[in-house]
Each structure stands twice: as structure tokens, then as C-alpha cells.
Amino acid sequence: MENLYFEDFEVGMEFETAGRTVTEADIVNFAAISGDWNPIHTDKEFAKNTVFGERIAHGLLTLAIASGLITRMRLVERTIVAYYGIERLRFTKPVFIGDTIKAVVRVVDREEREKYGIVTFEVNVVKQTGDVVLTYISKSAIKKKGGL
Q: Any idea where the MaoC-like domain is (predicted)?
């Protein structure tokens, strides 16, 4: 499905993205872009002595990858008005180098506006073990048919 309009979304609809494996290069590149060189992400020897026992991906890297996976579905590529925001963001489990993550997106609410609507999504990012590693509520302003 591509370029859905506000009217096309129904509460309960669910979408699942493709998977993507998190690499060491992802972590290093994200550290360089964000400036977050915390050793739990970037220092193998330091990370061995943490509760995780090895390096973990930045939470915000995991969020960025999930966002990209969702965008790749092209559900609202030409119908989105604006990304409205994120609520209740929680990093629930670590993501390690070599983990493969995907996003499961469920429509949980719709709010009518004059020329567009707000669609609320519950997003759960899951790794290959089935563990939810990230969960949040996402809102997007989506064009109505014949609207903007």
C-alpha cells in the first residue's frame, strides 16, 4: 500500500516493516553525527563491564532506524502533511550489534481536521528474538482526499 489518505486509515489496521540488521558502522556513524560517543556504545572494553556485557546501539539510533523502516513502506510518502510528534517513548531492551529489528505499526486513533486528519500510531520495534526494544506513540497529519 502506498500513499494512503486519512480516510484510508482505520483503527486496528496494522503494518509491519522489513527487518534491518544493526551494524558497528551504524553505531560509529551515529556517534559521529550526533556527537554521542558514550563508551557504552563505542568502547568494546568498557562495555564488557556494563550490565549489558557488550556495546549497545544508541536508543535514538534505534528510533532513527525504525523511522526509516516505516518511511520505506511509503504509506504516506505523498500524503503526509507533517510529522506531528512522539509520545510515551520507551527504550525497553538493548539492541546489540548484529540484532535485526523491524517495526510493527498499529493505528490506534484518528482525529478529523478540516483539510487533513491526525492519525495516531502505536509503534513497537521488535528484534529477532521477539523482544520489544522500543515502543512509542506517533502522530502524523495526513491529507484528506480532496483536501490540501
A: 11-121
Q: What is the pLDDT of residue 110?
A: 97
Confidence check: pLDDT of 140 > 70: yes
In what helix (H) or strand (E) does residue 66 lie, and over which residues does it extend?
helix 59-72
Residue ranges per structural domain of the chain: 6-143
**Per-residue b or e along 79-101, where b marks 16 or more CB atoms closer than 10 Å to that residue's CB:** bbbeebeeeeeebebbbbbebeb
3-state secondary structure of 85: strand
Q: In terms of Cα–Cα distance, which of 47, 131, 64 is closest to 95?
A: 131
Which residue type does 24 have? E
What's the pLDDT tens digit per position in 31-81?
999 999 999 999 999 999 999 999 999 999 999 999 999 999 999 999 999
The CATH fold assigned to 6-143 is Thiol Ester Dehydrase; Chain A (3.10.129)
